[in-house]
Specification:
There is one protein chain. The protein has 343 residues and is of the alpha/beta class. The protein has a domain of 199 residues: NAD(P)-binding Rossmann-like Domain (Rossmann fold, 3-Layer(aba) Sandwich). It has twelve helices and twelve strands. A seven-stranded parallel β-sheet has the order 3-2-1-4-5-7-10, with helices on both faces. Strands 8-9-11 form a three-stranded mixed β-sheet.
């Protein structure tokens, strides 16, 4: 089958593209003009230059496709203009859905986030029956993703079936522009710990999340959403898995939330407001970290055949990939190969 993947230069989108190729499908990748198309062509993808804010480019990209996987989004906790996040994440999703429908694309998978679910507090687990109110979410990124998800679900109809997937926190190799999760691994390997908030969190192997996308396309019910999660743990538990996966024994310091919030507020004001550059500790990111979420993937397991594996293996692959690709030098890690095969 022929698929369009948006966000193929990102962490989850690139994993989805690799999984589709590994399963014998043809993949067209929507890429920005600033990207080198030869890099995508070398990976077996058909590059299609465009932008979520350029409707004409979207119409060209969806032409002749059997399905669309929409994984592109601005994933930041700070931007110079607040409207950028909503224009791209919400407006771009609307334009892509409209273009796909007009082109006769029969099925569309939208990549949302576990962060659009409400936090009921420590010790609780969310399922697809839980629904958040936009204003209750802690930051603009997750507010924009919830609005985009609601738009996608309400747009599913007989012309084009739309399925939503909610990956939890992905971890694994090929995190080229390190996501917040990738930065946890990098800071761990560099032995530079800014401190951590020991929140409840669910990690998923990015390969499993990618497989869940294809399963949602093949078996997901139109107008439904599916949580793609792996292991419920804490940030402290993540460092424990890194210790086991790498053989290193590093113990970062837990920071109380009031101190982290103060540091985020000061850094965001100094860097973001005064210097107009991205803060190292964005206040919105600190607020998002206080949104504990353990998740239940039973619906995806039962309806899609979703089968998440041990997430500790993904932490090990992430560490080896960063070391092998020059992000950090750690004795004994960069020599280990990163497996190429996708589940």
């Amino acid at each position: 089958m022929n698929f369009l993947v948006t966000g193929a230069s990102g962490f989850v989108g690139s994993a989805v593209a690799r999984h589709l190729l590994a399963n014998g499908h043809s993949v067209r990748a929507l890429i920005r003009q600033s990207h080198d198309p030869s890099r995508f062509a070398a990976a077996g993808l058909e590059p299609a230059t465009g932008d979520l804010l350029d409707r004409a480019s979207l119409e060209r990209a969806v032409a002749g496709m059997d399905g669309v996987f929409h994984a592109a989004a601005i994933y930041k906790f700070w931007t110079r203009r607040k409207s950028d996040i909503f224009d791209t994440n919400v407006g771009g999703t609307r334009s892509l859905i409209e273009a796909a429908k007009a082109a006769g694309v029969p099925r569309f998978v939208f990549t949302s986030s576990i962060g659009v679910y409400p936090s009921r507090g420590p010790g609780t687990v969310v399922t697809e029956t839980d629904h958040a109110i936009v204003d209750d979410l802690p930051d603009d990124y997750h507010r924009s993703k919830l609005l985009s998800e609601e738009l996608a679900l309400s747009s599913s109809d007989t012309r084009m079936e739309i399925v939503v997937v909610n990956p939890t926190t992905p971890i694994g190799e090929e995190d080229v522009k390190p996501t917040p999760t990738g930065r946890i691994v990098l800071e761990y390997l560099r032995h530079r710990f800014p401190g951590y908030l020991d929140l409840e969190i669910n990690f998923v192997d990015v390969r499993d999340a990618a497989a869940g996308h294809l399963a949602a396309f093949e078996r997901g019910r139109a107008g439904e959403r599916y949580i793609l999660g792996g292991t419920n743990t804490t940030i402290r538990g993540a460092y424990g898995m890194l210790n086991e996966a790498t053989g290193l024994k590093r113990h970062p310091i837990r920071v109380p939330y009031p101190i982290a919030a103060l540091a985020g507020a000061v850094d965001t004001f100094a860097e973001g407001t005064i210097l107009r550059r991205e803060p190292r500790i964005p206040y919105a990111g600190v607020k998002a970290a206080r949104h504990p979420l353990h998740a239940d993937s039973s619906k995806a397991i039962e309806e899609l055949g979703f089968a998440p594996g041990p997430v500790q293996d993904a932490f090990g692959r992430a560490a080896r990939w960063f070391a092998s690709n020059g992000y950090v030098r750690v004795q004994g890690i960069s020599d280990d190969p990163v497996p190429e095969a996708s589940r």
